[in-house]
């Protein structure tokens, strides 16, 4: 069968997301994924050794799309304060879209995230590394004051301080009136903290 | 009966908390409250016209204890940055104690809070007013730079930026290792934003 020749991890993960969406996290099985792909479940297991590994990989893929989308801000040129503002605004926009645009898929991933806290921790580390890159550029350019105590701690503090605008625990607030000005006020506070006096 | 002569709103609220603790929010009734106090339920209704009003009042009392406890920082003298640090540290400590010390009562109040979002909004307003008082003092003393755009918005941004350390949605993180340094890093970021250059 032609399908098996081109069976990649990425294709399996796409099919897994489709199956999760269709059956929900409680009922989705590796056999369902294989059926969608028109392959044997053994072919799926050659790429992902267990169902748990497959679920972890699909969760990681879902989360890491944020990192890919935010990369232009992290690696871009231009003033560090604008890049950080853009990064935070874009993260908030993506999170709101995920929460509001497809609540069922979001709920599915919330279940998977609950099963895979190590994946979430790694993902947060990647996001904080992107903030750290922007902060380090800002310090080098003289736009930001030297980080106190250090860039990694400062970047984590920026992530934590804006947590109301990206942690799914707050998703219910994201459609409240006044959430936009609240975000802008926190962003402005964070930038004031970073800017060179 | 002597009890009726001294029946105050405060005594009813104490008894209501006791009844909520004993029976849980789903089962607690006004009749239970009256029984604990040794009065008729009519006597309770003379102070609180409905069961909903009683539940709202007991929720408000529970929340507003924080405001009372934090008042010394809000109204105190001394450097504004130390007062704000003390205020935020004390709020975090109280929230952790409530969440960790008596999880059952905490769960009860989480149910009541879900029923009374207007009470929570008023309570948050009171907390933000305390932050605003400290920020305004700091600006007057020259310790803090002029608030941009204004004191009320800045105070709300300080509250939102520290949300990971007082919003019950994050209670599960409060016993995680590293939560103390994470709090101190956010506090330090917030104070850097406020201090005069």
TrEMBL record, chains A, B:
Protein name, UniProt field: TetR family transcriptional regulator
Domain of life assignment: Bacteria
Keywords: DNA-binding, Transcription, Transcription regulation
InterPro entries found in the cross-reference section: DNA-bd_HTH_TetR-type_CS, Homeodomain-like_sf, HTH-type_TetR-like_transc_reg, HTH_TetR, Tet_transcr_reg_TetR-rel_C_sf, TetR_C_27
Keyword Nucleotide-binding in record: no
Residues annotated as domain HTH tetR-type: 6-66
DNA-binding region, residue range(s): 29-48
Pfam families referenced in this protein's UniProt entry, alphabetically: TetR_C_27 (PF17935), TetR_N (PF00440)
């Amino acid at each position: 069968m032609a399908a098996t020749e081109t069976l990649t991890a990425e294709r399996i993960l796409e099919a897994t997301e489709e199956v999760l969406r269709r059956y929900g996290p409680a009922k989705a099985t590796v056999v369902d994924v294989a059926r969608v792909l028109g392959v044997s479940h053994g072919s799926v297991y050659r790429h992902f050794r267990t169902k748990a590994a497959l679920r972890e990989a699909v969760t990681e893929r879902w989360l890491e799309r944020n990192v890919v989308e935010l990369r232009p801000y992290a690696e871009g040129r231009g003033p560090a304060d604008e890049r950080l503002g853009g990064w935070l605004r874009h993260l908030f926009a993506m999170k709101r879209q995920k929460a509001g645009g497809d609540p069922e898929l979001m709920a599915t991933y919330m279940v998977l995230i609950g099963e895979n806290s190590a994946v979430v921790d790694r993902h947060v580390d990647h996001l904080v590394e992107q903030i750290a890159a922007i902060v380090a550029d800002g310090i080098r350019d003289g736009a930001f004051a030297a980080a106190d105590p250090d860039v990694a701690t400062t970047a984590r503090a920026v992530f934590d301080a804006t947590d109301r605008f990206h942690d799914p625990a707050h998703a219910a607030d994201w459609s409240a009136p006044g959430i936009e000005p609240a975000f802008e006020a926190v962003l402005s506070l964070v930038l004031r903290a970073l800017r060179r006096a």
